[in-house]
């Protein structure tokens, strides 16, 4: 089984990997169909379904879809140019994708929010259409945004494209048990096995450059979030808190008045900085999703800034180990809040961060697996209930707590010998079953939980 570290961690734009990045990617794929079609389209239409409809406005799903149809991509997103293009489309009712003729597209009429039953494949469904001069549909495709920015067509989902292993890799573990067995047989660490798998697709230099680039974007995101003040967009009037907390923590340094538990504030502040940037539509790295993007960078930054002996040279080991765990969760369960609640997002992120931290602190393969299990186990059942459909409340603080749990899980695992009662595989399967049984109103629809008990104004 192979899911690349560069699929688990993708550079993109906030506020949501599944509701913003995914629809933008789907729209880009639809443009490719049109470029290869034997006919000329004169208009575009679309519809958003399930969670993409219910929380689409708060997640900017409509805007992301429109910009995707205009040729924008998450990894190279230009916010200033995007605003200009959106204004042009809204004013003219025309859209001009690269490599295609200008087409009719009036956003309010041609992109619908469908609040009916979910499409059959996934809670995050969307349909894109091209029309002829008469307005008749001449091309149509259904896409599913399955979490973390991953997108599949209906046919790909039906035929298990998300489970496609691709070309063979030397360590094709599909479960934690297989991962442990292969590590024992090969004498390699999880990170070394993951790197060996990556080298079947990229050179050593490409892997190293890519990993360094991922951490640079993560770290830059933390720093921007620690410096940028103001009110987050969306109407909840949520104030950015990370800069104020950070300034207070910096002022307290060296005063010998700080309680030991203040270290939790550092972790929370790093995570909140990322998720406040994400909520503002800034550049983030899916880890494994945008909604959970703060957990892992905060854990790395905590390790670098506060743990003696930490060194930047080990960050690739952290990321590769974390990606191996994230791949197992995605392959065997879900990383989508719309599919399995926030246990699949922050829970998965916490497990990944715990595994990575345990690895760079010298943990054995068994201790690393234990760390991931502890972190995920104590997120089981967590709902996804964003107020007003925005990735703000409870999402921003929740990332801080996810990071704290990750550090605690890694520390507990390092205190043991790797032997434990609940295997990681059983925990992942329990998460999958819990997500299946969870009421739809608690799965990123904003129809239950905090979303209906907190005034949306």
UniProtKB/TrEMBL annotation:
A GO term, aspect molecular function: L-serine ammonia-lyase activity
Domain Serine dehydratase-like alpha subunit span(s) in chain numbering: 187-451
Cofactors (names): [4Fe-4S] cluster
Domain Serine dehydratase beta chain: 4-155
A GO biological process held by the record: gluconeogenesis
Gene3D superfamilies per UniProt: D-3-phosphoglycerate dehydrogenase, domain 3
Domain of life: Bacteria
Keywords, in A-Z order: 4Fe-4S, Gluconeogenesis, Iron, Iron-sulfur, Lyase, Metal-binding
Pathway recorded for this protein: Carbohydrate biosynthesis; gluconeogenesis
Reactions catalysed according to its record: L-serine = pyruvate + NH4(+)
EC number(s) from the headed UniProt entry: 4.3.1.17
Family membership noted in the UniProt record: Belongs to the iron-sulfur dependent L-serine dehydratase family.
Descriptive protein name: L-serine dehydratase
Organism name: Donghicola mangrovi
Taxonomy of the source species: Bacteria, Pseudomonadati, Pseudomonadota, Alphaproteobacteria, Rhodobacterales
């Amino acid at each position: 089984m192979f899911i690349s570290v560069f699929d688990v961690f993708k550079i993109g734009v906030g506020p949501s990997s599944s509701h913003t990045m995914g629809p933008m990617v789907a729209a880009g794929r639809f443009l490719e169909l049109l470029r290869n079609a034997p006919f000329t389209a004169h208009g575009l239409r679309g519809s958003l379904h399930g969670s993409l409809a219910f929380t689409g406005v708060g997640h900017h799903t409509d805007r992301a879809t429109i910009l995707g149809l205009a040729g924008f991509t998450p990894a190279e997103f230009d916010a200033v140019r995007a605003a200009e293009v959106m204004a042009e489309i809204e004013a003219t009712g025309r859209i001009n994708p690269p490599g295609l003729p200008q087409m009719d597209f009036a956003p309010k009429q041609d992109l619908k929010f469908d609040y009916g039953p979910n499409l059959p494949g996934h809670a995050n469904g969307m349909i894109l259409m091209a029309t002829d001069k008469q307005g008749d549909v001449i091309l149509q495709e259904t896409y599913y945004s399955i979490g973390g920015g991953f997108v599949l067509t209906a046919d790909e989902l039906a035929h298990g494209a998300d489970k496609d292993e691709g070309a063979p890799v030397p360590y094709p573990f599909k479960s934690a048990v297989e991962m442990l067995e292969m590590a024992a047989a090969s004498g390699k660490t999880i990170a070394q096995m993951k790197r060996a798998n990556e080298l079947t697709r990229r050179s050593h230099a490409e892997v190293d450059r890519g990993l360094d680039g991922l951490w640079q974007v993560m770290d830059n995101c933390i720093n921007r979030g620690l410096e940028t003040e103001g009110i987050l967009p969306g109407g909840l009037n949520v104030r950015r808190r990370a800069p104020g907390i950070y300034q207070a923590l910096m002022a307290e340094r060296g005063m010998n008045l700080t309680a030991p538990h203040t270290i939790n504030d550092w972790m929370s502040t790093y995570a909140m900085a990322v998720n406040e940037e994400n909520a503002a539509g800034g550049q983030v790295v899916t880890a494994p999703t945008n909604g959970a993007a703060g957990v892992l960078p905060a854990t790395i930054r905590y390790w670098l800034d506060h743990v003696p002996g930490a060194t930047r040279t080990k960050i690739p080991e952290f990321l590769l180990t974390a990606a191996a765990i994230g791949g197992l969760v995605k392959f065997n369960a879900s990383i989508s809040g719309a599919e399995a609640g926030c246990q699949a997002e922050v829970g998965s992120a916490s497990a990944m961060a715990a595994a990575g931290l345990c690895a760079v602190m010298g943990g054995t393969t068994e201790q690393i697996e234990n760390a991931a299990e502890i972190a995920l186990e104590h997120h089981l059942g967590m709902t996804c209930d964003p107020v007003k459909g925005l990735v703000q409340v409870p999402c921003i603080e929740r990332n801080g707590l996810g990071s704290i749990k990750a550090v605690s899980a890694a520390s507990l695992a390092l205190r043991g010998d790797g032997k434990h009662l609940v295997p990681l595989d059983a925990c992942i399967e329990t998460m999958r079953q819990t997500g299946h049984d969870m009421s739809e109103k608690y799965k990123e629809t904003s129809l239950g939980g905090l979303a209906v008990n907190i005034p949306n104004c």
